[in-house]
Amino acid sequence: MGLVAVSSRSAPRSSFACIMVTMMLLLAYMPCEAQLSSTFYDKMCPSALNTIRTSIRTAVSSERRMAASLIRLHFHDCFVQGCDASILLDEAASSTSERNARPNFNSARGFEIIEVAKSQVESICPGVVSCADILAVAARDASVAVGGPTWTVKLGRRDSTSASLSQAETDLPSFRDGLDRIIPLFRNKGLSERDMVALSGSHTIGQAQCVTFRDRIYNNASDIDAGFASTRKRRCPTNAPDGDANLAPLDLVTPNSFDNNYFKNLIQRKGLLESDQVLFSGGSTDSIVSEYSKSPATF
Asked: Which GO terms describe its biological process (predicted)?
């Protein structure tokens, strides 16, 4: 099968190779219908998880925003073909990179952080740990690094050899989407409305570009707090493309802490993106938002 280069645009492709032949040899010793397991690497690479954790902690301590970027990168990977690291693949003759899809272009980031973690794992266990597993573990460790929840990550994923730009275009939610589109998108992945609202709560950290919320803050609609809109206009000019890439925190109150303020903001009509505010807009998800706003533990 050969090598599949999985790298950021700025780094050498060879430094981030996922050695598929080795993975196939390892899998040959497993049952044909292998199941993911949290102990998958305990014998093959016992230091893998600690190595990834240290790498991610270092990255987040250098740039707090990176925690949100890594969680988003994992989400955008999983929503297209499953959690298979296809979002990491560069352009190739046989496929177009998912990075060029509208939801990812000039916004998905953290590739170089995953590459560093992969390189460090390769140095101790060459050809053993998949990029897909590293990305999944990195998202968990990024959450923990900013005070968010932890969870058990089941391991043993295999890396994709192809990407799907078309599926990335159709399956990933847009910042302009209403409930009528978002709910089916999540349902098609086997996720309930509660799952959708909980996952949206990851917007308690991170930032968004002006181009994604300009229409919302200038449309003078009733679903946005006037004072909040005025504050956001300071760094987001009326006319595109001026200030398109200017950033604003998704959670104005505690932008660098993983908490439940995101849901409190929605109740106060202070959701930055249209796709956030629709979760509390008189629809079927209002009660879930209210529940999470009152209880960090429940969220």
From this structure: hydrogen peroxide catabolic process; response to oxidative stress
Query: Tell me, what's the pLDDT at 34?
Result: 58
When pLDDT is averaged across residues 8-20 and rounded to a whole number, the result is 41
| pLDDT of 7 strictly over 90 | no
3-state DSSP helix/strand/coil percent for the chain, to nearest 5? Answer: 50, 5, 45
Give the residue-averaged pLDDT of 60-70. Answer: 97
Q: Tell me if residue 38 falls in helix, strand or coil.
A: coil
Instruction: Return the H-helix or E-strand segment holding 249.
Output: strand 247-249
For Cα atoms 202, 74, 58, give the angle at the middle one, nearest 5 degrees. 80
Residue 82, marked binder: yes
Q: Contact, 263 vs 201, CB < 8 A?
A: yes
Structure tokens at 114: 């995953």
Q: Which residues are catalytic?
A: 76
Cβ atoms within 10 Å of 10's Cβ, excluding its own: 8
251 is in an annotated binding site: yes
Q: How many helical (H) and strand (E) elements, i.e. helices and strands, does the chain have?
A: 13, 4
For residue 276, say whether it is annotated as part of any ligand binding site: no
Domains and CATH numbers, the chain: 47-171 (1.10.520.10), 179-294 (1.10.420.10)
Cα separation, 40 vs 38, in Å, equals: 6
Burial class (CB in 10 A: 0-12, 13-18, 19+), 282: exposed
Q: Tokens 């032949």 label which residue? A: 21
95 annotated binding-site participant: no
Q: What is the 3-state secondary structure (H, E, C) of 238-261?
A: CCCCCCCCCEEECCCCCCCCCCCH
